Amino acid sequence: MTSFAYRGDLQRGCLWARLFAERMPAIDFRVVSELEGDVDATVHYLGTWAPLADYSRFPSLKVIFALGAGVDQFDLSLVPPGVALVRLEEPGIVGMMQDYATLAVMALHRDLPIYLEQQRRGAWSPEAVLPAARRRVGILGLGQMGAAVAARLTALGFSCSGWSRTPKALPDVRCHAGNSALGTFLAESEILVCLLPLTAATRGFLNAALFAALPTGASLVNMGRGGHLRFDDLVAALDRGQLAGAVLDVFEPEPPPPGHPVWSHQRILLTPHVGSVTNPESAIEAVIANIARHRAGEPMRGEIDRLKGY
Ligand code: NDP
Ligand code: OXD
Question: Which pTM was predicted?
């Protein structure tokens, strides 16, 4: 028998169980707790958002399906050798990120942080209004999310560029690659959207030096991970006017502690990591397709490269 062990919230687990029974009845689906349960050699597949402290309970494990697009919560050196770690690559999660990026970029493009601040102090002072075509948006990371966000924003008329590790070609997007192109890319990014994965190479990437390379009065959207941002550097850049505003969907830690300055900074809009939320109805299609590929000996979509870390 082959089993799929789901670790997570019981209510969502029941939904996954129902969908699995409908879509892949040959696989025995069970909801497991990390802390309880005997050794189970029938479990070949594990679905979980967070890593397990110990995988020895599942000695026949072949694939861990991370139930999100990012996998920085996993210490890859602790994933047993020979076990693949696969992230979610599926249209549902991407569509929500496109929506959130639209919300955040529009808010900054149309100066919402400034007007919220004005409203709180009873001020009425219009800023210059630019058409979208004259607003240059730069997207850090042109993978599953970055490419889709660029497509949505260009469709809305924004002038988009993007930056990635390896070269890309995307319609109507000025694509830059590698460290040598970073300065050029930043200099043309009036609204910078971070959609990088969090790795050793990108931790702390949104820092004072990067902010100084943006046009004066630029804005930031961080939809990647809180660990990308050096918060004190952001506050310094906002307070001296180098940056005009920021939208943060992610933070380190989540949630920020009570009284943390991010809760009250006038030029920061903070949301509680809701850029996208994994929807079992669409996520299951990606997981089931990958199980079918795995069983057929084919490469799965979204398998993490342990060397790159994403
Ligand atoms: P992908 O792996 O598909 O894309 C990552 C992109 O970043 C690639 O273009 C990659 O370049 C680029 N990149 C990685 N490292 C570097 C580097 N050192 N220098 C330059 N470019 C780099 O990831 P996704 O698009 O699916 O997701 C991105 C991140 O979004 C996730 O890791 C997660 O942190 C975040 N996320 C946040 C959510 C939220 O709710 N806020 C929801 C979902 C995801 P290359 O193409 O050359 O490899
Ligand atoms: C994800 C997330 O990585 O929700 O999917 O952040």
Answer: 0.97
| Ligand 2 binding pocket includes 70 (Cβ within 6 Å) | yes
How many angstroms separate the Cα of 275 from the Cα of each of 45, 89, 100, 101, 235?
27, 15, 5, 8, 22
Helix (H) or strand (E) holding 288: helix 280-295
Q: How long, in residues, is the chain?
A: 310
Let me know whether 120 and 253 are in one domain.
yes
Within a domain: 253: yes
Q: pLDDT digit string (tens) for 99-114?
A: 999 999 999 999 999 9
> In testing the pocket of ligand 1, which one of 164, 254, 274, 304 has its CB within 8 Å of the most ligand atoms?
164
Q: Write out the DSSP string of 214-225.
A: SPTTEEEEE-S-
For atom 2 of ligand 2, which residue has the closest CA? 68
Please give the residue range of the domain that contains residue 291: 2-90+278-295
Tokens of 300: 């799965």
CA 249 to chain centre: 9
